[in-house]
Design goal:
This protein is mainly alpha-helical. It is built from 7 helices and no strands.
């Protein structure tokens, strides 16, 4: 009775594979058939156990394969994003701190009053300074995240210098709200500090960028790229400075000529 019950259960679980055997067993009623049925059940149970073992082995091998693929995929995936973020970090700092901030300084120096007067100089000075500060700070923040997350190698000198640059650029940006009125007594002192700190920050930024470029995998390409940008800015500044010097000499000669004429013809 127990054998028939087991056989019925197995025939329900595996209807397609053992339907013919089930029909033959139901038609036969002899003792020999029962013995054969019991032997068939034993062979069925053995086949089921073998199939379950094979299925478990296949699933185990598949899961192991997936795990291996994931393990081999994750480092590649992270390396790709790590490389991409390093490029974004470098580009933002070069464009923001290394390009737009110097342009903002040049606008304030050469287009405020002398040698050329431009009414919109202050708006463009603030615009370039603000955009450059924002982009550079975002790039600096990405660098900090890379250092903490991916253990990005950054030299101690560059780390300290980048912090100094961030503090100084932040102070310069806050000067928009701190600057005193033109008629204030300490206005001249504020202008001296603002100009001196601005020029010092440009030198620190250039040094910081070249230190960071040396730590990159493709240092030569980065060095050439920023060298070209810096060379173009230097040529423009040199041309404007030469024009400023020429205008200054002309103005001084004009003043001397005017004074000499005043003393000659009282």
């Amino acid at each position: 009775m127990n054998s028939h019950c087991i056989y019925m259960i197995l025939s329900m679980v595996f209807p397609l594979q053992y339907s013919i055997t089930a029909q033959a067993s139901s038609c036969s009623g002899g003792l020999s058939d029962l013995i054969q049925t019991e032997r068939g059940i034993d062979s069925i149970v053995a086949d089921v156990m073998l199939q379950m073992h094979a299925s478990t082995s296949l699933q185990s091998s598949n899961s192991t394969g997936v795990t291996i693929n994931l393990r081999s995929w994750k480092p590649h995936h992270f390396r790709h994003h790590h490389h991409h973020l390093k490029n974004v970090h470098g580009v933002l700092i070069i464009i923001g701190w290394g390009t737009m901030l110097p342009i903002g300084v040049m606008i304030a120096r050469y287009f405020k009053n002398f040698p050329m007067t431009w009414k919109e100089w202050y708006s463009f000075h603030i615009m370039f300074q603000g955009i450059g500060y924002t982009l550079g700070t975002i790039g600096w923040g990405i660098g900090i995240c890379l250092e903490n997350t991916f253990r990005l190698h950054i030299s101690k000198a560059q780390r300290v210098l980048s912090i100094i640059v961030f503090i100084c650029t932040t102070i310069q940006m806050l000067a928009i709200f701190w600057q005193p009125k033109k008629e204030a007594e300490h206005r001249r002192c504020w202008e001296i500090y603002h100009h001196f700190l601005g020029y010092a920050v440009i030198v620190l930024i250039i040094t910081n960028i070249f230190l960071g470029v040396n730590d990159e995998g493709q240092a030569e390409k980065w060095r050439w790229a920023y060298g070209v940008i810096l060379g173009v800015l230097a040529l423009i500044a040199l041309a404007l400075e030469t024009y400023r010097w020429i205008k200054s000499n002309q103005l001084r000669q004009s003043i001397e000529l005017t004074n000499s004429n005043m003393y000659t013809f009282p």
